[in-house]
Amino acid sequence: MIRESGAQMEDLVEDLADTATHLLANYVRHQGSKPLQAWYASLLKHLCRELEDFAPRNVSKAACDEALRNDIADLREFHWNDQHKFDKGREVFQWEHMVPASDLFWDLVALAKDAKHTEHERVAKVLRRARIAWILKDEDKGLPKNRRADPWRAYQDAKIELVYRTCGVCSREDGEYECSIHGDRWPPTTSAY
Predict the structure, then answer these.
(1) Quick check: 99 and 131 in contact, CB under 8 A?
(2) Are 104 and 123 in contact (CB under 8 A)?
């Protein structure tokens, strides 16, 4: 499933970039009508949020260690909807949008302000930034809640170490963690859109 989510994300982004471009055009076109603009904004925000179902998933070293102590399989195999199976009351782990959905939305709106920049590839580039990380609730307290210009830097500043195993299993039995600030497939982008 971990590898599938990356491939599905790429297919989904290609499909959704056109939809997002259309929604953005209407968002801009209806600037004089608050109800219509709010409706298009709501659709765009929902689109950005629901990318979580297909976004590449990471796990923090601390969350991985906690999962191992509690005989929980690789957290990246789980969705937020599954959390109740291993974390009653959602007290230990946090399903975290590394790039907050609101950041994706505002990045898309920024593109729309310059009509020539709302072409498919620039919109797709914004959508591709979606990532999820399973972290501990305590780790989440150190992260800014939105406007993370560089989410990878935000994680470093909060002292959250992201890890993954090439075999797809979160385990230390055969040696050290393989660390990556880039996740399994999707390198971060810090360039302008």
Answers:
(1) yes
(2) no
DSSP-derived secondary structure letter, 177: P
Among residues 78, 2, 61, the alpha carbon closest in space to that of 180 is found at 61
Domain ranges of the chain: 2-179
Question: What pLDDT sits at residue 167?
Answer: 31
Residue with tokens 């993954």: 164
SS3 48: helix
Instruction: List, edge to edge, every strand of the sheet that includes 93-97.
Output: 93-97, 132-136, 57-60, 162-164, 178-179
Q: Which ranges constitute the DSSP H helices of 30-78?
A: 34-50, 61-69
User: Across the 193 residues of the chain, what is the mean pLDDT of every consecutive 10-residue run?
Assistant: 59 86 88 90 93 87 91 87 92 93 92 72 89 92 86 90 53 35 34 33
- Contacts of 137-144 with C-beta under 8 Å, sequence gap 24+, read 137/91, 137/92, 137/93, 137/94, 138/62, 139/60, 139/62, 139/63, 139/94, 140/94, 140/96, 143/96
Report pLDDT for 166.
35
- Beta bridge mates, 164: 178
How much is the pLDDT for 13? 84
Q: Exposure of 103 by Cβ count < 10 A (0-12 exposed, 13-18 middle, 19+ buried)?
A: buried
